[in-house]
């Protein structure tokens, strides 16, 4: 992760298994943000696409746990749009 951030690669954050009763997705997102800060991530890397999903149930919420459930293809679309071709 540190090398990716140093290379100015833009992260895409996907928090899975949020359908579980023990899930704590908002806390995990804060921990990820703090990790990026601890790794001295460039400021623009702190504005990342964020997905909360349940791979088992086949849905994703983009941006917040309050967002509407959508299909997992939205994650693939974001990857294709955000990651440059080799």
Helical content stands at: 25-40%
| Biggest beta sheet attributes | 3 strands, mixed
Any idea what the shape is? globular
What is the domain tally? 1
**Which class of secondary structure composition applies to the elements?**
alpha+beta
Q: Count the strands?
A: 3
Q: Residue ranges: pLDDT <50 for 5 or more in a row?
A: none
Q: Give the termini separation.
A: 19 Å
Determine Rg (CA atoms, Å): 13 Å
Biggest sheet strand line-up: 1-2-3
Round the mean pLDDT to the nearest integer and report it.
91
Percent range for β-strand residues:
5-15%
Number of helices: 3
Give the H and E element order: HEHEEH
Protein described:
The chain has 3 helices and 3 strands, in the order αβαββα. The protein has a 3-stranded mixed sheet with strand order 1-2-3, with helices on one face. The two termini are 19 Å apart. With 86 residues, the protein is an alpha+beta fold. Helix 2 (25-38) links the parallel strand 1 and strand 2 (50-54). The longest helix is centred in the middle third of the chain and has 14 residues, at 25-38. The mean pLDDT is 91.
């Amino acid at each position: 992760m540190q090398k990716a951030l140093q290379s100015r690669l833009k992260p895409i954050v996907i928090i899975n298994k949020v359908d579980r009763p023990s899930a704590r997705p908002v806390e995990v997102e804060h921990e990820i943000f703090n990790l990026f800060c601890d790794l001295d991530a460039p400021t623009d890397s702190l504005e990342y696409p964020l997905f909360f999903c349940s791979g088992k149930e086949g849905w994703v919420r983009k941006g917040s746990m309050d967002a509407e459930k959508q299909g997992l293809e939205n994650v693939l679309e974001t990857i294709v749009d955000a990651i440059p071709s080799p």
